[in-house]
Design a protein that fits this description.
Blueprint lengths: L4 E4 L2 E4 L13 E2 L6 E5 L8 H8 L3 H22 L10 E12 L2 E12 L1 E2 L17 E3 L4 E2 L2 E2 L1
Antiparallel strand pairs: 1-2, 3-7, 4-6, 4-8, 5-6, 9-10
């Protein structure tokens, strides 16, 4: 395929170079009960129209549990596409906050924040809905020692 120009709105841009970068990343359950911390670098679109109504009419505790179950489902779905069979129970702890996002000119709720899981997720992998549009991108949090504690 030969691409010489890119049309964005009313502007045309000449393409002078195309590069692709491929990284063979590891993923899967972490043995030994270790949890890894991640952050959402872009909003996670977790809710469809059906579970949005359930979310909207739930208590804070019920919302957290609903999001936890949806997140686990997203990891299982991602694993299925990667042809990886999750051999044990997924553990997840979410600390998220809602924010308004627009996708295809539709206003919806997305979530940002941090999470811990016993599943190794490659950096910049998308989780949830509309990952091909840049939503749900995750990035591992770096661990550092502060006065002897692991954070």
């Amino acid at each position: 395929m030969n691409v010489n120009e890119l049309l964005l709105g009313k502007n045309t841009y000449k393409i002078v170079e195309i590069k692709a970068h491929y990284v063979d990343s590891e993923y899967g359950i972490i043995n030994g009960g270790e949890m890894i911390s991640y952050r959402f670098a872009s909003p996670w679109l977790a809710l469809n129209s059906e579970n949005y109504m359930k979310y909207k009419h739930s208590s804070i505790k019920e919302r957290r549990e609903l999001l936890r179950k949806i997140f686990i489902g997203n990891i299982l779905s991602m694993s299925k596409h990667l042809k990886y069979n999750v051999p044990t129970t997924l553990e997840v702890d979410l600390e998220l906050y809602p924010l308004k996002v627009s996708f295809k000119d539709i206003s919806m709720i997305g979530f940002k924040g941090i999470f811990e899981t016993n599943f190794l997720v490659p950096d910049y992998m998308g989780i949830g809905k509309a990952v091909s549009h840049g939503f749900g991108i995750v990035k591992k949090l770096l661990r550092c020692n502060v006065e002897g504690s692991n954070i």
